[in-house]
Write a structure and sequence with these properties.
SH3 type barrels, five-stranded antiparallel beta sheet, three-stranded mixed beta sheet, 11 strands, elongated, cell division
Length: 599
């Protein structure tokens, strides 16, 4: 029999994924197991989604006749104790809803947003022995368990990866009232005083805004000591908010990928030589080291677009073409890392660049330090320092307009990048196969003509025969030029597009964090107008939203700055290579033409 429930109160959906309920309405449940105080089901109008578990009462079937004694009479059937008989249904006005399951505390380590990547928090013991280039971080034994600590332990103050926050204001209201987070008290409850009104929480506890710690920060639940070295400064530049420039800029080359082995040749891997310009000391890193670093950075910086790494490959990873292509992709990745004022100075990135390859102990110490970083989640936003004083405040309406404009820009850029990538890939395929074949067919035809003319033994025709044979060779060489050309011009363009498609995939989550903060500000202003919230508390929410807005606009400006630099350079390179290519083609044709001068 399908699980059903009866609505005890009216409920109006406010977020995507929710469904509305009407009092006494009967719903079909997808599961009786609630998700942090919320159930999933289908209402009488056929809408499917989430709703507060405390707003409904599960309708259970009448108890069946007890089964005949089993062989092991002391073991309950099904492995569970029999459920007690259900309480009789009472009208909503007489029966308050049950206490909902409390939400996770601020700083609770949800999986990182923006993809399926699961960073490892496991032991270092398997760092060099059990993880080869074909494995993923999520495959590490214990990675899942260590990334998702026990909820009760986290809530009870047990030592964990993140220091628990102390809440600066009551964000959920009195829990004894039994109302779900983010919604008014159910009918029959007392009215709230002005000072106890709060901004609602998002229903979807797995949204980017929640997982990134943005909600907890905006609601004032983040606390921690920020060292001067951890501060990330946003300044006002000519284009608006910008990340403060790195006072010691540097670059890092990636060279000489070499195949290395361990365990007496039983395991092979590719190591890349990195040479940072600010140290001049070379280190060797495997792809798994890049992968680990990416996971740390994607988790730590929710409002910064961490560039994506080139994709992994299960087979053929030791082939020369694949190694060359991956090295070029890693070079682009490294360029964007070094060019970002925040990422370039991150401790984890500096450890990655400078720790000697042979010092395993130092590497593991730095790795553990990065994985135990407390300035993540809601606490990360505490590290952001923004301009203060006259003229430094942001107009939230203007910010919303700028972010919406950037959102439309990224959508259009993503579409055009996909189109260009498809067109370039198709054109490269034609050059490598079709154009080469066609030019060589022309060359073969000229060669056949030359061989036919050679049957004439007259001396005065020898020069012509040689000239036509040379023309055939020229067209054959031009076919080879076409086949080799995509490596010089189209492939670099597609490599750049791949890198930017990764950035464009990051920004919806970054924008979602800023939008979520802005929604909380609007809600707090409405509470102040209705006399339900003190002005001071609403101003605190707006101040924290400003910090997220400053950071978001700074990241948008950095993206545009780097985009103009990269595409200017790449288009210049593309056109230069095209000119060189056609100059080579022209040279081949001119050489063939001159052969006829002596005929």
């Amino acid at each position: 029999m399908a699980l059903r429930a009866r609505a005890l109160y009216d409920f109006r959906s406010e977020n995507p994924g929710e469904i509305s309920l009407r009092e006494h309405e009967v719903l079909s449940l997808c599961s009786e197991q609630d998700i942090e105080g919320w159930l999933e089901g289908v209402n009488s109008r056929g809408d499917r989604g989430l709703f507060p578990a405390s707003y409904v009462q599960v309708i259970r079937a009448p108890a069946a006749e007890p089964p005949a004694p089993a062989r092991y009479a002391n073991v309950p059937v099904g492995g569970f104790e029999p459920l007690p008989p259900p309480a009789a249904f009472k009208p909503a006005a007489q029966q308050p809803p049950p206490e909902p399951f409390p939400p996770p505390p601020a700083g609770y380590p949800f999986p990182p947003y923006g993809g399926s990547y699961q960073p490892s928090q496991g032991s270092d013991d398997d760092w060099d022995d059990d993880w080869d280039d074909s494995s993923t971080v999520a495959d590490e034994p214990g990675a899942l368990g260590s990334s998702y600590p026990d909820y009760e332990a986290a809530g009870g103050g047990a030592p964990g990866r993140y220091r628990l926050s102390t809440r600066s204001e009551p964000s959920l209201g009195p829990r004894g009232a039994g109302h779900p987070p983010g919604h008014p008290h159910p009918p029959g409850g007392g009215g709230a005083a002005k000072s106890s009104a709060t901004v609602s929480r998002n229903l979807n506890r797995f949204s980017t805004f929640v997982k990134s710690g943005g909600e907890a920060f905006v609601l004032g639940e983040a606390s921690g000591f920020v060292k001067d070295g951890d501060k990330l400064c946003v300044v006002l530049g000519p284009r608006g908010p910008e990340w403060q420039e790195n006072p010691y800029p540097f670059q890092c080359s990636i060279e000489d990928p070499t195949k290395q082995t361990k365990f007496k040749g039983m395991k092979s891997y590719i190591a890349y030589k990195l040479v940072p310009s600010h140290t001049g000391q070379q280190v060797h890193r495997r792809y798994k080291h890049f992968d680990w670093l990416y996971g740390r950075l994607a988790e730590k910086f929710p409002v910064i677009s961490v560039p994506h790494l080139p994709e992994k490959q299960a087979t053929g990873r030791f082939e020369e073409d694949f190694i060359s292509k991956r090295r070029k992709g890693l070079a682009w990745w490294m360029d964007h890392m070094c060019s970002h004022p925040v990422l370039a100075q991150c401790d984890a990135f500096q450890h990655f660049l400078t720790c000697p390859s042979t010092d395993e102990k130092a590497w593991k110490q730095g790795k553990r330090k990065a994985e135990k970083d407390e300035m993540v989640g809601a606490n990360f936003f505490l590290t952001i320092s923004v301009p203060t004083g006259p003229g430094a405040s942001l107009d939230l309406q203007e910010v919303e307009s700028q972010v919406d404009g950037f959102k439309a820009f990224t959508k259009k850029m993503d579409e055009s990048a996909l189109q260009l990538n498809h067109t370039a890939n198709e054109f490269a395929r034609k050059q490598v196969t079709g154009f080469k074949k066609e030019y060589q067919k022309v060359g073969h035809s000229f060669k056949c003509l030359s061989q036919a003319f050679e049957l004439d033994q007259q001396a005065f025709s020898a020069g012509l025969n040689q000239a036509i044979a040379f023309t055939a060779e020229a067209y054959d060489a031009i076919g080879d030029l076409f086949a080799d050309q995509p490596r010089q011009d189209l492939d670099p363009v597609m490599d750049l597009l791949a890198l930017y498609q990764g950035h464009l995939a990051n920004f919806p989550d970054i924008i979602h964090v800023q939008k979520g903060a802005l929604t909380k500000v609007k809600e707090s202003k409405r509470h102040v107008e209705e006399g339900k919230m003190e002005l001071q508390k609403a101003e605190g929410i707006q101040e924290r939203c400003n910090i997220i807005s400053f950071a978001t606009l700074a990241e948008i400006n950095h993206f545009h700055k780097i985009r103009v630099r990269d595409f200017k350079s790449q288009m210049q390179h593309f056109l230069q290579q095209q000119i060189l290519f056609f100059q080579k083609v022209t040279q081949k044709l001119e050489e063939a033409l001159h052969k006829y001068d002596s005929v």
